User: Fold this.
Amino acid sequence: MVGTTSSGSSSTSNENLGHVVFITAAAAIGGFLFGYDSAVINGAVTGIQKHFGIGAAETGVVVAIALLGSAVGAWIAGGMADRWGRTRTMQVAAILFAVSSVGQALPFAVWDLALWRVLAGVGIGMASVIGPAYIAEVAPAAYRGRLGSFQQLAIVLGIAVSQLVNYGIAQFAGGSVNNTLFGLQAWQWMLGACVLPAALYLIFASIIPESPRYLIAAGKTQRARKVLAEVESDDTDLDSRIAEIKKSLHTEQRTRLRDLRGPALGLLPIVWIGILLSAFQQLVGINVIFYYSASLWQSVGINQSNSLLISFSTSIINIVGTFIAIALVDRIGRKPLLLIGSTGMAVALATAAWAFSAGVPSGENVTLPATQGTVALVAAHVFVLFFALSWGVVVWVLLGEMFPNRLRAVALSVAATAQWLANWLITVSFPSLAEWNLSATYVIYACFAALSFVFVMFKVRETKGRKLEEMG
Assistant:
């Protein structure tokens, strides 16, 4: 929720702020699952290829098919959140996470694994929508950027933990993801481990309060008043806040997809901005690092165990960058961070493309000269750092706050769906593109990073410090 000021001088008490931080962190566990379940496939890719005897194209389909499920989950989450409430939608996502984790650990065929990954993707997509929306609706304006960043922080922590767990399981299995542990191959344990944080998400989603905006929309004003008293500053006039939210809600009808129609190629301009922000976040190729880095580094001559360790190191860089973004997003604003990130990513990706251009074929893989190999590793880490301190955090913050109240849930669903479709396109195409020309593939990603700079410069408005009721 918004506080009484937007300048950062809110008198939110320590007790209230602590409560807001707790419920925000609890909601962001969905982001942890999002990151964990998205990236855990990184360590399992080689094992799946060997176990089922599939090639690059089939591997791309198995890895990327979860993203189609994510697009579906993102598409339906907004409507579910408006009908059932934010917390109930979180509970459904948690159950989907848990069930799909068990299914992925016990596949009897590659198509069976793919179906379970679709179901996991639905849960991921739902979490990608409901987390930012819920956090934006309970966070005071003065802290909303930082609290909104919890979603991305949770995602990068999930990515890092998944890589660490993958490395630990592989080491425990003797260094190979196809070795057997307690009756299952190591890669199966990797995919099944997500059931534990899924159970934690379900527990927390069952105890945190419902969004005051949803409660007021559902006619549960007294419950909304209680939640507002817990999250707003001590000197907030609760009657005025409730009246303000009611006025905002009552001036609109329940939003449907047709309400997003506008003069700009069939959609409102603000919706297109959300779609393009989401698409650019993925078209720079960030998830190539998180889905394929282990097999990528193996393809340029690094052994399986060390490739998993490198994947973990990029996850640590991801966390560092996210903390930088959290520290800066409410100070220097959303737009400057995006511009800084676009510049850094474009340079890093172009540098990686140069390094990979020196690859020398060696059997099924390639070998990089020592200098280019080092440059490629450094460039990959720099790319992740600039993504994490900018687009990784800021896009989720913007998507949670940039849309007007009457459009927020549905517009966020559309934007998140576009994000998952762009993610799917990059993920499904990378194995085949890498076989064709790894260097040229990274040139493509660098071009998208450069285009993202132009887009932000001319089309994205700053939202720092503005009330949600002022967005539009």
About this structure: The longest strand covers residues 360-362. Confidence is low (pLDDT under 50) at residues 1-11. Strands lie at 180-181, 184-185, 360-362, 365-367. Residues 433 and 441 are 6 Å apart (CA to CA).
